Amino acid sequence: MLSPQPKRGNEGGDILGPQNPDRARQEPDIICPPITDSGKMPNMKWSYTDSHMRLEEGGWARETTVRELPTSTELAGVNMRLGPGVYRELHWHNESEWAYIIKGSCRITVLDVEGGCAIEDLEEGDLWYFPTGYPHGIQGTGKEGVEFLLVFDDGNFSEDSTFLLTDYMARTPKSVLAKNFRVSPKLFDSLSQKEKYIFQGTTPGSLEDDRKSVRPSRHRFVHRMLNQPPQLFSGGSVRITDSSNFPISKTTAAAHVTIKEGGLREMHWHPNADEWSFFLKGHARVTIFASSGKARTFNYMAGDVGIVPKNHAHYVENIGEGEVEMLEMFRASKFEDFSTEQWLAQTPGQIVAEHLNLEGNKREEFLKGLSKDKEPVKKGPRRNSF
To answer: What does the record give as the active site (predicted)?
Structure first.
């Protein structure tokens, strides 16, 4: 397949200098932007492939924060892998933690402020939420362990600033540890003097046995997102998880969206927060309208992160073969969006027609076709992939 060229009719020309053809094929609408793109807009895309990989015993982690993507100011993300029995060591954060299981399975533990402990087994499509400061741990289970996406409610988050149990214990005098836990100081001679972070552990036993050993929490920290009945539309499906059906998740709202081949996540905007998107599957095009005559188009593939600032109108179009699957996350307690079509359908027809310069048959065709009911994902004709 030939690489796209920066040519449109009589505008532009071919590239004579060095090129990265593979990269160009992933970015056709950057190389040759639609004629509707205009003005200057900061970058709204980052690929986890470009994130630095931290390799540890039995696992890895990589970040997308404001350092990698300066427009990612409200949320930050960490993609993490834990092999079977591998721990993400016991820790807590200044930020709240929202997570989605991409593949595999794991066991989580979390302590609430009332002294109750929740222990849960999770698998693909499940998510958890831990409020700021709640101590917790994660361990890979099953034959393949787990890979997941973590989302934190601060774009400046860093995995390196986590409060880790091993680091905490190593920075506390042994005499104090002995007093606190009512044991001999010698018991702590074998403490690790550096953080463990990700490390190999023993495969956990039964969930029932672990639960018997603790005082249970009365709070629900886990939500089975893919078990949630989807809203079905002509062009795909939507599942929304926010504080209305997952009450503890007060700072992060999310939607799981699928878009059929050729379909469209409709023209819309979010009034309460920036959108932080993660693409799980497929190839998509997004044009962001920023007011003042500014708009820019981006292409996204699996493993990419996208940012759309609050109140910036946009769509997500499936331009590849097969389905697009994506997560939309927001630093908000509720998922909110405005549909462009619903707005126009709920506005008197004459006002709409005069704004859009529609007359005669065009006026009638457009106004009759408007729906007062929101259809977040619309079907479309099949398109050729890039």
So the answer is: 328
